[in-house]
């Protein structure tokens, strides 16, 4: 499609762009200045049952299989002005990922948006839960607290732990409780002692000694015992004589009784009785019993102290009853032991009263055993508290207490329902996050493959378009604005110095300085062509290209035409719009084109209209026209033979310039060429044979009669039809040579 400037070509491109997206804005922006009528458009497509109609500010339907290359495409996806900014990088990212990638991005964004809605709802639900109830926990920690059936007991225990930590010094110094002695008297051993007798000591002898000693009174037994010892120690000197009166002791029965009474066995028995009496007084004497009473009182004070920090058992015992039983048993035993001491050789048994006293003491000792068991329990718990306050900080214990108190509030009916709603919303968010992760993995897998492939495609088209650079490092980058694409430009003659499109440092090479306008446009076209090549639906694509050779030099313009021809074979349809008539003609001349049509946007009054354009009237050269005029004259006599005569010399010059370009460059005259050709006749570098040189000279001489450079009267020179016809026939024949 050809159009001169200001004929509406860009408006047509905007119509296609609007149809592609269904967005009416591109059409509204192209409204005629001062116009009042609403825009109306109708486009018919062979693959659509109904025409696409734009009316009342909207399209009847969009046509997504249209791809448009124009300034808007460049501005959206490649560069704007002289730089590549965030919008272009983001646009290129979308272009590279393609329809599938865009769908993956949209599905991912849907889950991201859903997560944000979950977050808003979670914040709303969290705000309904009293901050005081949290006690320093996060809302998630609070709502996820477990239900504890014994929560009150745990809170009480934790409170005591905190209290203990606050009194660490006192706890560390507090000694353990002491167990009360609960020593039971062994009745069997005492009864055995009471029954013990000495078979070697005669009872009559003991009776006599005892009666005599009673008569002697206080100190008598010691006095007699001393005499017995002296007599025994000096038996060698004294013999059987008394150490006091020196009379013989042999006939004295009392003296014999003394020997038995003061024997070692007898003395041992009496000593054993005395030791047992002393032991009873030591265990159950007044001092011992007072010590037990004092220890009981001290234990009670310590138990009261520890009850603030532990769940201490009741430390109770009827200590007075125990002491009374101990005194009664002690006194009963002492009484019987004293009887035994008075008559060591006499056997005694435990009296009924003594037995009852001992049984009562045994019962009381059992209560003391229970008391001591509780003492041990208190000591174990106290030790645990003492260890805890030494290794656990006060703040940790306070946190534990706060957590337990929060756990109690968590299941308060007024809060439980709110926490349940929060946890339900949190579970829904977790499910959404799982879907987001799955979509993110799918997108990442797609991006991992598509970016290298797209880079390769862009570089392929850059090579085909004869660009002196390539791109490298094309990759996806996540930014706060969204996904973006970054890459570098690599100039062919400086491959070790890539220039990032992100670089905007002043005084340093950048996108705007390393690429010319032609380079930038070439890159934009390569990006567009790469996007089409990577599109799985390209066979159904309608491709619209607006001024593809803008600012391109001749060799890139030719390469562009070649790529458009290649593209036409791969897509449904290609529509090229241009202000360049040579470009349109060049495309029209492409071999093998089927179903092509040329349209001109022509002026019609104050507006424009579309009409079929005869490319042949504009696509042929002046040489083609002159040659055609000569051929026509051979077939039919023309109205103006002078034009035919004037066309002979230019026709010869054009032929020679093409046939012998090295010898007939632009600006060369026919006379000069004839001279050169004559000089080379017959040689290795012959240009024309002699006959051709002569024929060219004859034809030139005739043609000069009708040329302004060689005949001042060229416009009035006489023309003979037969002569002209003969020379035209010779000229046509000469220019047909191989």
From TrEMBL:
<dbReference type="InterPro" id="IPR026866">
    <property type="entry name" value="CR006_AAA"/>
</dbReference>
<keyword id="KW-0175">Coiled coil</keyword>
<feature type="domain" description="Protein CR006 P-loop">
    <location>
        <begin position="122"/>
        <end position="580"/>
    </location>
</feature>
<feature type="coiled-coil region">
    <location>
        <begin position="105"/>
        <end position="168"/>
    </location>
</feature>
<dbReference type="InterPro" id="IPR027417">
    <property type="entry name" value="P-loop_NTPase"/>
</dbReference>
<dbReference type="GO" id="GO:0006302">
    <property type="term" value="P:double-strand break repair"/>
</dbReference>
<protein>
    <submittedName>
        <fullName>AAA family ATPase</fullName>
    </submittedName>
</protein>
<dbReference type="GO" id="GO:0000731">
    <property type="term" value="P:DNA synthesis involved in DNA repair"/>
</dbReference>
<dbReference type="Pfam" id="PF13166">
    <property type="entry name" value="AAA_13"/>
</dbReference>
């Amino acid at each position: 499609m050809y159009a001169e400037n200001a004929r509406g070509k860009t408006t047509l491109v905007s119509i296609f762009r609007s149809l592609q997206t269904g967005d009416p804005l591109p059409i509204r922006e192209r409204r005629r200045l001062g116009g009042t009528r609403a825009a109306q458009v109708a486009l018919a497509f062979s693959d659509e049952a109904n025409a696409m109609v734009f009316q009342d500010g909207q399209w009847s339907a969009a046509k997504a299989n249209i791809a448009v290359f124009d300034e808007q495409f460049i501005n959206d996806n490649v560069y704007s002005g002289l730089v590549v900014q965030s919008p272009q990088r983001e646009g290129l990212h979308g272009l590279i990922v393609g329809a599938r990638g865009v769908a993956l991005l949209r599905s991912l964004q849907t889950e991201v948006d859903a997560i944000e809605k979950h977050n808003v709802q979670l914040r709303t639900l969290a705000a309904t839960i009293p901050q005081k109830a949290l006690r320093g926990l996060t809302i998630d920690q609070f709502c996820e607290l477990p239900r504890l059936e014994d929560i009150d007991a745990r809170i009480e225990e934790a409170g005591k732990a905190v209290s203990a930590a606050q009194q660490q010094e006192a706890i560390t110094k507090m000694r353990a409780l002491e167990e009360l002695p609960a020593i039971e008297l062994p009745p069997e051993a005492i009864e055995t002692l009471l029954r013990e007798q000495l078979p070697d000591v005669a009872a009559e002898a003991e009776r006599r000694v005892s009666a005599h000693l009673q008569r002697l009174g206080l100190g008598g037994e010691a006095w007699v015992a001393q005499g017995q010892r002296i007599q025994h120690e000096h038996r060698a000197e004294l013999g059987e004589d008394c150490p006091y009166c020196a009379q013989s002791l042999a006939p004295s029965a009392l003296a014999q009784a003394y020997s038995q009474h003061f024997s070692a066995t007898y003395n041992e028995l009496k000593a054993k009785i005395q030791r047992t009496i002393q032991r009873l007084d030591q265990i159950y004497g007044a001092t011992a019993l007072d010590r037990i009473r004092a220890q009981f009182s001290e234990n009670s004070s310590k138990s009261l102290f520890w009850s603030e920090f532990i769940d201490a058992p009741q430390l109770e015992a009827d200590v007075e009853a125990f002491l009374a039983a101990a005194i009664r048993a002690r006194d009963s035993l002492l009484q019987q032991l004293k009887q035994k001491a008075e008559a060591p050789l006499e056997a005694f048994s435990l009296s009924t009263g003594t037995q009852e006293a001992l049984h009562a003491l045994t019962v009381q000792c059992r209560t003391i055993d229970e008391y001591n068991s509780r003492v041990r329990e208190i000591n174990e718990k106290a030790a645990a508290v003492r260890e805890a306050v030494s290794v656990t900080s006060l703040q940790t214990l306070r946190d534990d207490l706060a957590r337990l108190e929060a756990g109690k509030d968590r299941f308060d009916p007024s809060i439980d329902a709110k926490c349940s709603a929060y946890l339900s919303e949190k579970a829904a968010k977790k499910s959404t996050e799982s879907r987001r992760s799955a979509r993110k993995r799918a997108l990442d897998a797609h991006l991992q493959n598509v970016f290298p492939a797209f880079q390769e495609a862009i570089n392929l088209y850059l090579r085909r378009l004869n660009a002196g650079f390539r791109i490298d490092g094309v990759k996806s980058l996540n930014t706060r604005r969204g996904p973006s694409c970054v890459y570098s430009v690599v100039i062919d003659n400086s491959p070790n110095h890539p220039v990032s499109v992100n670089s905007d440092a002043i005084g340093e090479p950048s996108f705007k300085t390393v690429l010319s306008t032609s380079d930038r446009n070439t890159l934009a076209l390569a990006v567009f062509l790469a996007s089409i090549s990577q599109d799985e639906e390209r066979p159904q694509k309608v491709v619209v290209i607006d001024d593809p050779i803008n600012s391109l030099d001749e060799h890139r313009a030719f390469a562009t035409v070649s790529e458009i021809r290649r593209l036409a074979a791969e897509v449904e349809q290609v529509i090229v719009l241009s202000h360049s008539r040579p470009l349109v003609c060049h495309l029209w001349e492409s071999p093998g084109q089927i179903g092509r049509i040329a349209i001109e946007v022509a002026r019609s009054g104050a507006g424009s209209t579309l009409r079929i354009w005869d490319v042949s009237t504009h696509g042929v050269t002046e040489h083609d026209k002159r040659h055609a005029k000569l051929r026509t004259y051979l077939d039919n006599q023309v109205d103006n033979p002078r034009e035919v005569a004037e066309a002979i010399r230019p026709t010869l010059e054009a032929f020679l310039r093409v046939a012998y370009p090295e010898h007939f460059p632009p600006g060369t005259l026919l006379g000069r060429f004839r001279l050169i050709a004559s000089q080379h006749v017959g040689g290795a570098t012959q240009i024309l044979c002699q006959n051709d040189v002569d024929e060219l000279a004859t034809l030139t001489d005739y043609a000069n009669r009708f040329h302004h450079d060689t005949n001042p009267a060229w416009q009035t020179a006489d023309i003979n039809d037969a002569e002209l016809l003969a020379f035209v026939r010779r000229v046509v024949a000469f220019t047909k040579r191989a």
